[in-house]
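Here is a typical protein record:
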Amino acid sequence: MNTDELNAWFVDQVLPLEAMLERFLRRNWRDMDEIPDLRQEVYARVYDGCARGRPDSAQAFVLTTARNLLIDRARRAQIVSIETYADMDALAPTLDELSPERHLAARSELKLLQVALNLLPARCREVIELRKIEGLSQREVASRMGITEDTVERQVSKGVRALALALQATGLGSAARSVAAPLRKGRKTQ
C-alpha cells in the first residue's frame, strides 16, 4: 500500500475511532494527563503496523494496539500498581470471537492450504506434514523417513517457500501449479 492509500485508509478507518479509543484509554490508565500522549503513540503504532499490511478490522487492531501499549507501559514502570492491571482483560473487546465470517474465512484458508500441500512432491509434502503439522523434530523426521537431517532441512525450506508462494497467489489455479511444477521436476534430485 502506498503512502497516499495508507493516509486515506487511516483517515477513513482509524481517526473516526478516536472517541472509542479515548474512552478505552481513560478506563484503563490511571494518569489522565498521559492520555493524549498514549493516543498519539497508539496512532503511530497503528500507522506503522498498517504500512506493512492492512488489518481486517481497524477497530480490533486499534484496541489491541492500545491494550498492548498499556501493557508495555505498565511493564516498564518501576512500581506497578495493582490498579494498572485491574479489569484490563474484562474491558478489552472480545477480539477472538469466532463469528460466522471468521469461521468461513478460516475454513477457506484451510482448504487453500490443503490444495497447496497437495501440489507439493510426495516426499516434500510428507516432510512438511511431519515437521510442521505433527511437530516432530528434524532428527525424528529424518529417522522416520530414512533420510538425512540436511535433506529434511532442504525439503522444509523448499516446501514452506512453495506453500507461501502458492498461498500468495489468491486463486491457486494456474499460479499454484506453476509454483509446484519446478518442485515436481526436482523431486528425484533430493
The radius of gyration is 23 Å. The longest helix spans residues 100-119. DSSP finds eleven helices and no strands in the chain. Confidence is low (pLDDT under 50) at residues 172-190.
